Amino acid sequence: MYGVWTPEQVRAAEEPVLARTPEGALMRRAARGVAQVALAELERRTGGIAGRRVVVLAGAGNNGGDGLWAGYELRRRGVAVTAVLLSPDKAHPAGLAALGRQKGRVVTAVEHGVSAVDRADLVLDAIVGTGARGGLRPGAATLAAAAATARVPVLAVDTPSGVDPLTGVAADEAVRAARTVTFGARKPVHVLAAPRCGPVTLVDIGLGPELPPAPITVLEDADVAARWPVPGPFDDKYTQGVVGIAAGSRTYPGAAVLASGAAALATSGMVRYAGSAADEVRAAWPEIVATDTVGEAGRVQAWVVGPGLGTDDAGAQTLADVLDAGLPVLADADAVTLLGQHAELRERARETPVLVTPHAGEFGRIAELTDDRVDSARRAAADLGLTVLLKGNATIVAAPDGRVLVHPAGSAWLATAGSGDVLSGVAGALLAAGLDPWWAGGCAALVHARAAEIGAGAQEGPGSPVPASHVQRALPAAIRQVREAR
Ligand SMILES: NC(=O)C1=CN([C@@H]2O[C@H](COP(=O)(O)OP(=O)(O)OC[C@H]3O[C@@H](n4cnc5c(N)ncnc54)[C@H](OP(=O)(O)O)[C@@H]3O)[C@@H](O)[C@H]2O)[C@@H](O)CC1
Ligand SMILES: Nc1ncnc2c1ncn2[C@@H]1O[C@H](COP(=O)(O)OP(=O)(O)O)[C@@H](O)[C@H]1O
Ligand SMILES: [K+]
């Protein structure tokens, strides 16, 4: 696992380090890191370094300073460097002087910048970093657009400009980077807007001892592997945790089949199904014990409730029954809507460990969703007294005690009907196996996204759509792949 820190925390950590290091040393170190990655990119993309063309888009602050110093390093390796100064009066003086000493070219007119970008092998986006306020200004936006139109790869310095470093919200004209080099610590933008950043390289500038505990955690395969339940020699079908699925309806039997099948594939042991799609579930999954109601279902150690359930009185009654069992509960889809509608159900949900898994629309029914998705999820978890998994390209899991994790999906193939039902089955199975809701949500999100990647590559090589039933089918391969990281 690794941590992510807010720009404010990173700035605070920089202060003591700046105070005890010679002036400019931190920036030089950051710039050398940028140059190293830029050189590797040039070599990889063009097969050489000397004479290759790099354009530095340099803004008014220290981010621009990083870019100019990186340009200096690249000039020393024989790269043809052009710096475009977006605020010529405010360009970082030492960085600009250094580039000048190495005979780097400097332009200030946007149109000259655009023609340099058109012919570049690589663009360094040093327009703005953690000091960004609002979207890009017109000159910067024109240059970012020129790089995109000319399909010149962009290496973002610290953060892709035009994307909010804290929330990951991107302005229309924001930079889309092929790679990003960041300094000291990863920031929220790198996981909340991962597709805008590309692969992120972290350059150590000695902030480690100054950073507080990370406010955001990102799980890696080894973390999930260490917690994924596997049967031991003395286990039987009951000892590993039985999960009950209260989902689906006559109108939506598919949700029941997707969720309960996913639960059956996620862990060993047993799955029970309770609801009006019992026939469909039995037909698809003979190993699942299916009954018509929660009352008839027999003992379970956790419940999944909601997918395809309906939001009528019967649905509300099912949710109430499940919450009253006093067991961990995964509440998805219609169960989220019902929680939004009924204050008494929200009160009952405080009394038992609950993981709710809304998409953005459903989230809005239980709490306020702002541009700051992490903050929204954290507040909702604390206010409602339950663990919130907010779906999206970056999945956020926030526990009422303040723990937050983000899982950036490797692709967007999961944006397909029914994939959320699969997630609920996986997370429910993990709850039944004894994981706490935060870990269950985090482990399920990682394996779910991996199953989509595997499913999307299963037909004719990577890159084909993957319907939810194929995501479900890819769960065993995803679990196997993740567990290999032990
Ligand atoms: N501290 C350190 O030791 C180290 C810091 N490091 C580096 O410093 C970076 C932070 O530097 P920072 O604080 O100077 O802010 P920064 O991101 O350059 O932006 C502020 C400037 O940009 C401008 N601007 C603002 N919004 C804008 C917009 N939307 N569109 C366009 N322009 C905009 C704004 O201009 P103004 O409003 O004044 O005209 C202001 O001058 C950090 O990301 C890292 O790269 C590394 O070297 C490691 C050591
Ligand atoms: N653009 C996207 N990129 C990656 N994952 C996505 C994207 N959009 C949705 N997802 C994921 O797909 C799943 C969709 O769940 P949900 O909206 O509940 O769908 P359904 O109700 O059809 O099952 C969630 O796990 C969500 O995180
Ligand atoms: K930048």
From TrEMBL:
Q: Where does the record place the YjeF N-terminal domain?
A: 10-213
Q: What is its EC number?
A: 4.2.1.136, 5.1.99.6
List keywords of the entry alphabetically: ATP-binding, Isomerase, Lyase, Metal-binding, Multifunctional enzyme, NAD, NADP, Nucleotide-binding, Potassium
**Domain spans labelled YjeF C-terminal:** 220-482
Q: Which residues bind (6S)-NADPHX?
A: 62-66, 129-135, 158, 255, 308, 359, 421
* Cofactor notes: Binds 1 potassium ion per subunit.
Q: Which reaction does it catalyse?
A: (6R)-NADPHX = (6S)-NADPHX; (6S)-NADHX + ADP = AMP + phosphate + NADH + H(+); (6R)-NADHX = (6S)-NADHX; (6S)-NADPHX + ADP = AMP + phosphate + NADPH + H(+)
- InterPro entries under this entry? Carbohydrate_kinase_pred_CS, CARKD, Nnr, Ribokinase-like, YjeF_N_dom, YjeF_N_dom_sf
Q: Enumerate the cofactors the protein uses.
A: Mg(2+); K(+)
* Superkingdom of this protein's organism: Bacteria
Q: Which HAMAP family match?
A: NADHX_dehydratase, NADHX_epimerase
The entry assigns this protein to a family as follows: In the C-terminal section; belongs to the NnrD/CARKD family.
Q: Whom does it interact with, and what assembly results?
A: Homotetramer.
Q: What job does this protein perform? A: Catalyzes the dehydration of the S-form of NAD(P)HX at the expense of ADP, which is converted to AMP. Together with NAD(P)HX epimerase, which catalyzes the epimerization of the S- and R-forms, the enzyme allows the repair of both epimers of NAD(P)HX, a damaged form of NAD(P)H that is a result of enzymatic or heat-dependent hydration. Bifunctional enzyme that catalyzes the epimerization of the S- and R-forms of NAD(P)HX and the dehydration of the S-form of NAD(P)HX at the expense of ADP, which is converted to AMP. This allows the repair of both epimers of NAD(P)HX, a damaged form of NAD(P)H that is a result of enzymatic or heat-dependent hydration.
Protein name in UniProt? Bifunctional NAD(P)H-hydrate repair enzyme
Q: Which organism is it from?
A: Actinomycetospora straminea
Q: Which gene encodes it?
A: nnrD
